Amino acid sequence: MAKQPPHRDPAQDAPHVAPPAHAAAGLPAIGHTLRMAAEQMSPGRVLATLRRVNQPDGFDCPGCAWPEPDKPHLAEFCENGAKAVAEEATERRITPAFFAEHPVAALAERSGYWLGQQGRLTTPMLLDEGATHYAPIGWDEAFALIAEELTALDSPDGAAFYTSGRTSNEAAFAYQLFARKLGTNNLPDCSNMCHESSGSALTETLGVGKGSVSLKDLYQADLIIVAGQNPGTNHPRMLSALERAKRAGARIVSVNPLPEAGLERFKNPQTPRGLVGGGTRLTDLFLQIRLGGDLALFRALNHLLLTTPGAVDEAFVAEHCAGYAEFAADAAELDRAAVLRATGLPWEQIEQLHGLVLGAQKVIVCWAMGLTQHKHAVPTIREVVNFLLLRGNVGRPGAGVCPVRGHSNVQGDRTMGIFERPSAAFLDALGREFAFEPPRAHGHDTVDTIRAMRDGRVKVFFAMGGNFVAASPDTDATEAAVRRCRLTVHVSTKLNRSHVVTGARALILPTLGRTDRDVTAAGPQFVSVEDSMGMVHSSRGGLRPPAPGLLSEVAIVTRLARAVLGPQDPTPWEEFALDYDRIRERIARVVPGFDDYNARVRRPGGFALPHAPRDTRTFPTATGKANFTVNPLTAPEVPAGRLLLQTLRSHDQYNTTVYGLDDRYRGITGGRRVVLVNPADAAELGLADGQFVDLVSEWTDGSERRAPRFRVVHYPVARGGAAAYYPETNVLVPLDSTADVSNTPTSKSVVVRFEPAA
Ligand code: SF4
Q1: Of 13, 210, 355, 450, which is most buried with the most CB atoms under 10 A?
Q2: Is residue 411 one of the residues assigned to a domain?
Q3: How confident is the model over 60-86, as a mean pLDDT?
Q4: How far, in Å, are 27, 44, 47, 113 from residue 34 at the CA level?
Q5: Both 554 and 571 in a single domain?
Q6: Residues 119 and 215 reside in one and the same domain
Q7: Is 707 in the same domain as 725?
């Protein structure tokens, strides 16, 4: 039987600090995996559950979106995947008795870690207006209540429908259809806060807002540049792919303000070398760049390529690209001093990278939040594309763009239409298929939804999964905005902060997880997801659901739609709920690339979605070509006596879900309120290792935000920067501090000062 949840909420500001690790995974990963799984499940359940993760007849890991290899290993999961699965498959339960015992005000005093450890939600719960406790409510009553609030709105745009990346393709398609039939495009999603900058830059330059490489491409690459990403914690099975590429002769360059163990050495627990040997050294060249210096680095690289005879693939550029002349004219000159200031790198290292690029025919650039969460994120990613286009590294094996998605189906949700700025072509197809005129006015993304709640323009907030309040920037402003709502509704598996920061009325609708069996009157159902490389495959849970009467995401959306849109709405919501093949048939007629969906998704491993730049070197852009762009060199400006803070995850965390209080690769255990500062910067700022400080962010409008009591840890971060975990430091990220074009919060770029803690 699983261990009881922690009764006491452990202190989080007294961590133990040791030197950081220099290798990821290995035997310790197996130990931690089994220990954390055993906290949540009995041994038999641990084995029964973990053996089905990422298997053709099993379920998709609810963690990140890393793809499965053609032939999955017996244990095709990483330590953090196992933690995500264990947290969902836990035997701990939250019953109405729990809510009767805990008033919401008391739950709001608890940490996210403690809330998440209480177990799976089992019963629909209502926090009525003026009530102090959640109380049980029937499903039909819950849907009727939501219908009452939605129909009371002056306009459908008075509601917002948020999606977290765990939502399946089938539920996401039905959800966006419901929202659009209601009359709104207010469909913010977690992608707005993570890879929106990638989508914006890639759509403009290549015509497709997704990565263009497959796992096979990674194995064939000559050079892999990993920029602004920490795969050892956030996409751990990527290390296996990097190891395989390395063994095939690839060179690996990591560009990161922090020396991450997972990029240094990988001890693959699937191999003797990884279990008892020294593992595999991954990175050949580590560029410890200043926060936000990536645009300057790629501008310098492109300048060097342009000024190196024979380095440019002239034939590819002439045939497939537009805008080259303007780009080349602008990049012919380079302010080297500005590059050195912005990157903090010695010029020799940039030349070293240039040398590696010249020696490589097939180059892939992988990236994550370290590039996407800056004000100049979109120009940075455009410059990465310039770099790849110069030598024709798009649309051929072993080469291309690889934004690595952080949530298991965040890419699939977007493909299904979860987007506040849908294309006219998508709305036309949707309208044709369901015989209605979808709303055309663009809706609110995440940041705009918070503004709309703050300003009283959005009064009903509905979330399909996730932890909106904790994941969003500017925590105090976000919480105040949410509290202005008439109604907040969360479809969830576990308890989190968003359940205790509510509108006047609040509903918790407990749903099935990926690990749970989903059986309707038509028989067992499966869902499907799309991974970071555009592979669509099925996911079948096998565990008995945590409680009878729990509804799947699809059942919740379709019953809600019927309750709100009424019996006169011709959409066959009931058929959709009964048999998900009916949903997939519609998807096949609305979304390009899903023809014969039901047959192809049943194949082991599923199928690849088309990607014109990868498949045929055709670029569905405004010019019909791959677009070179001009991106003036810029980098964050940091006033004297301040540092630039980046928020990041610990190793015991997945997005805002905290599995434990350790970050063992960085040598930190038993606590989370730490701030990592370079010893030289600390000396200049008079910050002693172990000293407690308040972090105060300073925004351009003069406003300030405070995060109290963090322990200073002298750590080898790049000069001028600091690092601390979110969600604890999301309070420091101003709501209006967003990336140009994508409106993504600049969570990797927050100017802070340090004050002695009270
Ligand atoms: S790499 Fe990502 S998808 Fe794969 S098991 Fe780990 S967390 Fe899950």
Answers
A1: 450
A2: no
A3: 96
A4: 11, 12, 10, 19
A5: yes
A6: no
A7: yes
pLDDT, residue 413, reads 98
CA atoms of 511 and 55, how far apart (whole Å): 23
Q: Which residue is closest in CA terms to ligand 1's atom 2?
A: 64
The pLDDT value given to residue 149 = 98
Domain contains 409: no
Tokens representing 564? 């709100």
Instruction: Give the residue-averaged pLDDT of 270-298.
Output: 96
Residue type, position 227, single letter: A
Q: Which residues are near ligand 1 (CB < 6 Å)?
A: 61, 63-64, 66, 77-78, 80-81, 84, 235-237
304 lies in some domain: yes
Q: In angstroms, what is the span from residue 407 Cα to ligand 1's centroid?
A: 9
Task: Let me know how long the chain is.
Answer: 758
Closest residue by Cα to atom 7, ligand 1, is 81
95 CA → ligand 1 middle, Å: 30
Distance (angstroms) between ligand 1 centre and the Cα of 65 equals 7
Cβ atoms 212, 206 nearer than 8 A: yes
Domain that holds residue 283: 196-404+622-627
Which domain CATH number covers 480?
3.40.50.740
Question: β-pairing, 24-25 with 265-267?
Answer: parallel
Tokens of 474: 């500017």
Is residue 177 domain-shared with residue 77, that is, in the same domain? Answer: no
**Residue-wise burial string across 214-224, b where 16 or more C-beta atoms lie within 10 A, e elsewhere:** bbebbbbbbbb
pLDDT score of 756? 97
pLDDT at residue 4 in the model:
75
Centre of ligand 1 to C-alpha 237, Å, is 6
Closest C-alpha to 284, from 253, 247, 241: 253
Ligand 1 nearest atom to the CA of residue 60, by list position: 3
Ligand 1 midpoint to CA 682 (Å): 36
